[in-house]
Amino acid sequence: DVVLTQTPVSLSVTLGDQASISCRSSQSLVYSDGNTYLKWYLQKPGQSPQLLIYEVSNRFSGVPDRFIGSGSGTDFTLKISRVEPEDLGVYYCFQATHDPLTFGSGTKLEIK
Amino acid sequence: EVKLQQSGDELVRPGASVKISCKASGYTFTNYAMYWVKQSPGQGLEWIGTIIPLIDTTSYNQKFKGKATLTADKSSNTAYMELSRLTSEDSAVYYCAKLGARDYWGQGVMVTVSS
């Protein structure tokens, strides 16, 4: 199974500052069709996960441009510029390139 | 508006089975795969399996084979997941989700296995 290793496990950020989360895969996430099926989710307390980024760097409809996904192959990053109070929660990366589909273990973002 | 409405929380005895539903609306149910995801208490997310309603094809995470059975009723636009031989390890929140470039998730069903 593909293992997605997220770092850090938790992150405490001052409002207005930038946050950066890493997701490293045990295998390349480039699919045979050339696409990379790596997503980022935010799960706010008591809610279902919500999609932020799909295929590495594409923002889902309505997601602020403060959220930027990047990376390739096995190394991916989610950057959140100008952190706001509504950004708190647990961030997960997710890969749908390989079977079984797998999630990272999560990064908890707290506001200082 | 796409909506996935899941059934209510369940309290079940060890060894029993439970069947969770996920009613889809706002899109053509048969045309899109439905995914099921488990979130154990205080833990991360695990993909259980996927069903394609149009052709009744299922794909399971090996870990959940024999534990979860996915079905779909095209007449009512509802997907189901049955969990069998329940143990305390199965106590979790279970989500259905329509994944893709446009993602939609159900609200989750908490299953508690307890005598």
Could you write a compact summary of the structure shown?
The complex is a heterodimer of chains A (112) and B (115). The radius of gyration of chain A is 13 Å and the shape is globular.
Question: Would you kindly provide a written description of the structure presented here, covering whatever features stand out?
Answer:
- The complex is a heterodimer of chains A (112) and B (115).
- By secondary structure, chain A is an all-beta fold.
- Chain A has no helices and eleven strands.
- In chain A, strands 2, 4, 5, 6, 9, 10 and 11 form a seven-stranded mixed sheet that branches. A four-stranded antiparallel sheet of chain A has the order 1-3-8-7, with no helix packed on it.
- The relative contact order of chain A is 0.34.
- With 115 residues, chain B is an all-beta fold.
- Chain B has strands at residues 3-6, 10-12, 18-25, 34-39, 45-52, 57-60, 68-73, 78-83, 92-98, 104-105, 109-113.
- In chain B, the strands form two sheets. In chain B, strands 2, 4, 5, 6, 9, 10 and 11 form a seven-stranded mixed sheet that branches. In chain B, strands 1-3-8-7 form a four-stranded antiparallel sheet, with no helix packed on it.
Fraction of residues in β-strands of chain A: over 45%
Encode the helix/strand succession of chain A as letters.
EEEEEEEEEEE
Rounded Rg of chain A: 13 Å
* SS elements, strand count of chain A: 11
* Oligomeric status: heterodimer
Q: What portion of residues of chain B belong to β-strands? A: over 45%
- Largest sheet report of chain A: 7 strands, mixed
What gross morphology of chain A would you assign? globular
Helix run count of chain A: 0
Mean of residue pLDDT of chain A?
96
Report the radius of gyration of chain B as a whole number of Å: 13 Å
SSE map:
The complex is a heterodimer of chains A (112) and B (115).
Chain A: E1 4-7, E2 10-13, E3 19-25, E4 38-43, E5 50-54, E6 58-59, E7 67-72, E8 75-80, E9 89-95, E10 102-103, E11 107-111
Parallel strand pairs in A: 2-11
Antiparallel strand pairs in A: 1-3, 3-8, 4-5, 4-9, 5-6, 7-8, 9-10, 9-11
Chain B: E1 3-6, E2 10-12, E3 18-25, E4 34-39, E5 45-52, E6 57-60, E7 68-73, E8 78-83, E9 92-98, E10 104-105, E11 109-113
Parallel strand pairs in B: 2-11
Antiparallel strand pairs in B: 1-3, 3-8, 4-5, 4-9, 5-6, 7-8, 9-10, 9-11
